[in-house]
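ok so dumb question maybe but i'm new to this and my supervisor (M.) told me to 'just get the structure for GDYXXLXY domain-containing protein' and walked off. so i did the thing. is this what she meant?? sequence i used:
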Amino acid sequence: MPTSPDSSAFPTPLTAALPTPAPLPPMHESRRRLGVRWLVVAQVLFVLGVAAAGYATAALGRIITLRTTAIDPRDLLYGDHLNLNYSISQIPGHLWRGSSVPRRKQAVYVVLESRQGNYEAVAVYAQEPTVPASQVVLRGWVADTFRRSMRLRYGFERYYVPENTGRKLKPKQSLRVQISIAPWGQARIKQVDVLPPSPVPTTTP
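this is what came out, is it supposed to look like this??
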């Protein structure tokens, strides 16, 4: 007569051996609402802080004027803004005062000095230098390095304009931009002016 296998010879399934986890207690509704409120308050404070810093920079900052052109005006109205290429964006290598070769994304401090009404770069340091009252320091970072120059960014290469305004600019239109630099280093665009086209030099026969 056949006999059934002894059940004690098989291992007990693991799932059956583990205790059933207790369900997590539900989050209290008032606590969840309080968390949402704090999140909204934090977002509002962040927006107000950014706006206040912008207004303070415009009100308390030192105003300088930079020369710039719009990069490829055929595409500069992408999203109703101008892409600006400043004269201080491309820095000759001999202006670098650091002890080592600059690296991409490295923070740098550009010393600017007025030249015929516009500020131009006269030196670039790895550490913030002390300058006389006739000069100003602008903080930027290295975007690209080349054999004899480097390209810098300052955080105000984009300027928003009213709808369809940018399309009226000619290719490589010269612009003059007023920058406000706050005592704590923050900088922002204050005003952008379109310069008249340069007269074409005449040649005598």
